[in-house]
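Collaborator request, handled under Task 6.
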Amino acid sequence: MRIDELHKFNNGTLNDVRNALDDRLKGTRMQYFPTTIWRKGDKDRVAAMIQAIDKMLNTRRIMRSLE
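Structure tokens returned to the collaborator:
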């Protein structure tokens, strides 16, 4: 998934994706995640994706409150 594809998902899916990426970035071990070694570029990309998801969720929340 790329950052420009985030508009396709609803809020619940974005929250799930954000939480999963955050867990992977922090190194939380889960049984259903394969164990891979992340390079610095991977971690930077995930951090940028999390920021983009947070920004989109915040924008949607503001727009919903203005309606």
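The cover message to the collaborator said: "Helices lie at 11-26, 40-66. The mean pLDDT is 79. Please let us know whether this matches your experimental observations."
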